[in-house]
């Protein structure tokens, strides 16, 4: 499954909160887009009505050879995004201008922060500090919730 380059770049801009004035556009965005090239399936938050309960783990499905992303909330104060990684898939090393917390919902993944690897399992979380290089790798099929507050 592939997405257009424009859609991929838009997602990366939103996800990593990179803007030209933060000097992320040329420093990291192209590297990231080449490393996860067209394997990212992007889904909007149409499946997330307000004032109704739902199960996070059931709202994003695995896709073979892909990282699936589903935005739950996106506004001027931050983003909440669900991810489902197929085994071996990853998000390349990058920085973001805001702290972000990863919460593992299913499987096992590695979060690499400033060169140090942390293996996370269901129920575990980690905070990725602002402006510090980090990456995510699926040790096995892996679902996580990413919350970034601006």
Q: Could you give the topology of this structure?
A:
Blueprint: H1 5-16, H2 24-35, E1 40-43, E2 67-75, E3 78-85, E4 90-94, E5 100-113, E6 116-121, E7 125-128, E8 134-149
Parallel strand pairs: 1-2
Antiparallel strand pairs: 2-3, 3-8, 4-8, 5-6, 5-7, 5-8
Helix pairs in contact: 1-2
Please report which band the strand proportion falls in: under 5%, 5-15%, 15-25%, 25-35%, 35-45% or over 45%. 35-45%
Choose one word for the global shape.
globular
CATH superfamily: Jelly Rolls
What Rg is obtained from the alpha carbons, in whole angstroms? 14 Å
How many distinct beta strands?
Answer: 8
Helix content: 10-25%
Helix and strand content put the structural class at alpha+beta
Report the mean per-residue pLDDT as an integer: 78
How many independent structural domains?
A: 1
- Name the CATH architecture: Sandwich
Reported by name, the CATH topology is Jelly Rolls
Instruction: Work out the oligomeric state of the chains in this entry.
Output: single chain
C-alpha end-to-end distance:
31 Å
**Number of helices in the DSSP assignment:** 2
